[in-house]
Design a protein that fits this description.
Number of helices of chain A: 0
Largest sheet of chain B: 7 strands, mixed
Distance between the termini of chain B: 36 Å
Structural class of chain B: mainly beta
Structural class of chain A: mainly beta
Oligomer: heterodimer
Number of helices of chain B: 0
Number of strands of chain A: 11
Shape of chain A: globular
Order of helices and strands of chain B: EEEEEEEEEEE
Strand content of chain A: over 45%
Helix content of chain B: under 10%
Shape of chain B: globular
Distance between the termini of chain A: 41 Å
Largest interface: A-B, 24 and 28 residues
Number of strands of chain B: 11
Strand content of chain B: over 45%
Largest sheet of chain A: 6 strands, mixed
């Protein structure tokens, strides 16, 4: 059974700083990886996906995937107070069900 | 962006009663999902649904749970009878196609079973 683990549990970043989130997964056959962001009281919203090894950049967000190391990460550059949220790593498994990590709470201080 | 709606936003119900959670998925999406999130814990997959059928369900999808989408209307999750451990936030999601496609989530229904 797929296990997805995230670190750190929480992260405090100054406005304009860099936030780095880590995620490991257990199933070597996993193919599709996602980062979701959830603001308090809302549903999770897909931030970005990454399917191939290496880096993928979308604006201030960069995801990195290393399937051999069972590792995926997310870096947020120039963090803004609006980036304060719960961030989930998720991996697509059988029949497209998402397996989520336990989340990293990011707080960006103005 | 695409929006998934969920009705009601909150529901309080007595243990043993039936509850139906409603989801209005993104128009033209074909795949539908339910996830459960207990406060302070991670989101967990319950079930997915395509072409009128359950494709896959997790061990959390108990016999008391059922899903349907009659005539293209709401995608529903019914729990009958409810138990105390069913208290959670239930999120509906939809996607255009299956594996590899973005799942769009609704705002959730907060269910409290007393």
């Amino acid at each position: 059974q797929q296990k997805v683990q995230q670190s750190p549990e929480s992260l405090i970043v100054p406005e304009g700083g860099m936030a780095s989130l880590n995620c490991t997964f257990s199933d070597r056959n996993s193919q599709y990886f996602w980062w979701y962001r959830q603001h308090s009281g809302e549903g999770p919203k897909a931030l970005m996906s990454i399917f191939s090894n290496g880096d993928k950049k979308e604006g201030r967000f960069t995801a990195h995937l290393n399937k051999a190391s069972l590792y995926v990460s997310l870096h947020i550059k120039d963090s803004q107070p609006s980036d304060s949220a719960l961030y989930f790593c998720a991996v697509t498994g059988f029949a497209s069900a998402l397996t989520f990590g336990s989340g990293t709470k990011v707080i960006v201080l103005p | 962006g695409p929006k998934v709606l969920q009705i009601p936003s909150h529901q309080i119900i007595d243990m043993g009663q039936m509850v139906t959670l409603n989801c209005d998925p993104v128009s033209n999406h074909l795949y539908f999902y339910w996830y459960k999130q207990i406060l302070g814990q991670q989101m967990e997959f319950l079930v997915n649904f395509y072409n009128g059928k359950v494709m896959e369900k997790s061990k959390l999808f108990k016999d008391q749970f059922s899903v349907e989408r009659p005539d293209g209307s709401y995608f529903t999750l019914k729990i009958q009878p409810t138990a105390l451990e069913d208290s959670a936030v239930y999120f509906c999601a939809s996607s255009d196609w299956g594996e590899g496609d973005t799942q769009y989530f609704g705002p959730g229904t907060r269910l409290l079973v007393l």
